[in-house]
């Protein structure tokens, strides 16, 4: 139990693990056995941490790795939006807690400058949604593989000090629950507006890798489902949905 946690559901039940393959996999097992909404599974390290499309999430000690179980009872087409509210909750809580300049890279990266500090992996199982959250909180950058070191950072590195993970999690869960309630009350519009204000991708030139090939243009704005409105070289706007995206490279 987190001391002073001011939520009704999220984080009321916390399961701590020293090590696991992936907290999302643990959450899936719990969902299948009927676990209720709001339960959070946290691990100190993961041996098979996952990102989207089976990419690896490097999960050494010091980072925050957790999965939140939700049962939103909304139509399937709104489920995709949950990753936007989750990334916004991380950005809000990190900014509020550390005063660092935290931004969002479309569609689901939490960044400081142009370096990734956190990511989201949302998965649906049996009508439930599992929000997998990874944040490089007190991680030593030295332990990351060489190829990642240039593109990532940790809160500890940026702040020059360790932050208390329990205090941060309390803030995170409160922001997450607040935004989740807004989502349930169909206030997606205000979530998108705040996302846009923190989105460092907008106004930049991007190369977007889709399954069917690459699209190139300027990240113009976001639509009310979180989709990217891409201004192409031909002057036309294309809607890009996060579920179709393999990779986004900001080129300028
Ligand atoms: C993500 O995927 O960013 C989602 C990450 C979600 C991780 C959490 S941890 C708890 C829960 N349990 C899990 O198994 N997963 C979730 P994606 O957008 O596909 O980004 C993956 C890419 O991020 C990799 O290909 C690397 O380039 C980079 N990466 C890997 N580990 C990283 C780290 N610790 N910090 C920053 N970037 C990392």
Report on this structure.
The chain is of the alpha+beta class and 252 residues long. Helices cover 28% and strands 31% of the residues. It is built from 7 helices and 12 strands. It has helices spanning 23-32, 76-79, 82-98, 146-149, 155-159, 165-184, 188-198, and strands spanning 14-20, 40-46, 64-70, 102-105, 109-112, 115-125, 128-135, 205-210, 213-222, 228-232, 237-240, 245-250. The strands form 2 sheets. The protein has a 7-stranded mixed β-sheet with strand order 1-2-3-7-6-5-4, sandwiched between helices. Helix 3 (82-98) packs antiparallel against helix 6 and helix 3 (82-98) packs across helix 7 (188-198). It starts with 13 loop residues before the first strand and ends with a strand. The protein binds biotinyl-5-AMP.
């Amino acid at each position: 139990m987190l001391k002073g946690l001011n939520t009704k559901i999220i984080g009321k039940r916390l399961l701590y693990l020293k090590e696991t393959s992936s907290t999302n996999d643990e959450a899936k097992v719990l969902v299948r056995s009927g676990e209720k909404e709001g339960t959070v599974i946290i691990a100190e390290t993961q041996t098979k941490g996952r990102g989207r499309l089976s990419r690896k999430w490097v999960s050494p000690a010091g980072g925050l790795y957790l999965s939140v179980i939700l049962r939103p009872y909304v139509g399937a087409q709104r489920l995709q939006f949950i990753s936007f509210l989750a990334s916004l909750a991380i950005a809000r809580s990190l900014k509020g807690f550390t005063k660092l300049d935290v931004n969002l890279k479309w569609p689901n990266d939490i960044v400081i400058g142009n370096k990734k500090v956190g990511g989201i992996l949302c998965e649906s199982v049996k009508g439930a949604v599992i929000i997998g959250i990874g944040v490089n909180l007190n991680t030593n950058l030295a332990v990351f593989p060489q190829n990642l070191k240039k593109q990532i950072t940790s809160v500890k590195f940026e702040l020059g000090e360790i932050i208390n993970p329990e205090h941060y999690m309390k803030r995170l869960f409160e922001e997450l629950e607040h935004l989740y309630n807004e989502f349930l009350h169909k206030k997606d519009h205000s979530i998108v507006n705040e996302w846009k204000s923190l989105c460092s991708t907008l106004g930049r030139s991007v190369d977007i890798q889709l399954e069917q090939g690459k699209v190139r243009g300027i990240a113009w704005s976001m639509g009310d489902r979180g989709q990217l409105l891409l201004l192409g070289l031909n002057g036309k706007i294309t809607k890009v949905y996060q579920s179709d995206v393999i990779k986004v490279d900001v080129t300028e």
